[in-house]
Amino acid sequence: MSLAVPAGCAGTENSRRALSVDDLLVGWNGVDDLWVFAYGSLIWHPGFAWRERRLATVRGYHRSLCLWSHDHRGSPDNPGLVFGLDRGGCCRGVAFQIAADDVPAVFNALWRREMVTGAYTPRWLTCHTEAAPVRGLVFLLNRACQEYAAGITDDRLLASVRNAVGHSGPCLDYVMETERALRAHGIDDWRLGDLVRRLGQAF
Length: 203
Fold this sequence. Notes:
By secondary structure, the chain is of the alpha+beta class. It has a single domain, classed as Hypothetical upf0131 protein ytfp, CATH 3.10.490. The chain contains 6 helices and 7 strands. The strands form 2 sheets. A 5-stranded mixed sheet has the order 2-3-1-5-4.
């Protein structure tokens, strides 16, 4: 199911967002709790109430520092990088269970946070947990977006993470906080661990 707002949709930003969330929730009975998969800053700063938290794996996608940030973790002149879920491999993260009563408010807040630039495409995917698989909302990388950092060199990646600062703080803090949150949950992301070592940061 495509969850993007159709091109040419009229109305204010709020009305477009509402239509997008409504599209996402088509078929939801309003009674069942829903799940959201976190792989980056949502792990350590979800910004919403949750009922249960489980370690989960999404297959077919991997965590990648592959999106330019010109505001939150960088600037137009000195963009930083943030995580997306790119095609291939698998990703270990955290699934949050959202109580049914909280779903409309939480999902609208997620849209305001994640769907501003079109860098992400939301999908319902299977999140594999030790207890049982759950169907969760996952924000996937939109490779067609302007923010996609395709073919970035290692040197530029390292320089951007070290030096970029946005209105949410330094890019380096964002990367380090995500790596710490993963380790705190017992998640070993060797790519991110290698990046942290190359950045010269002590664990």
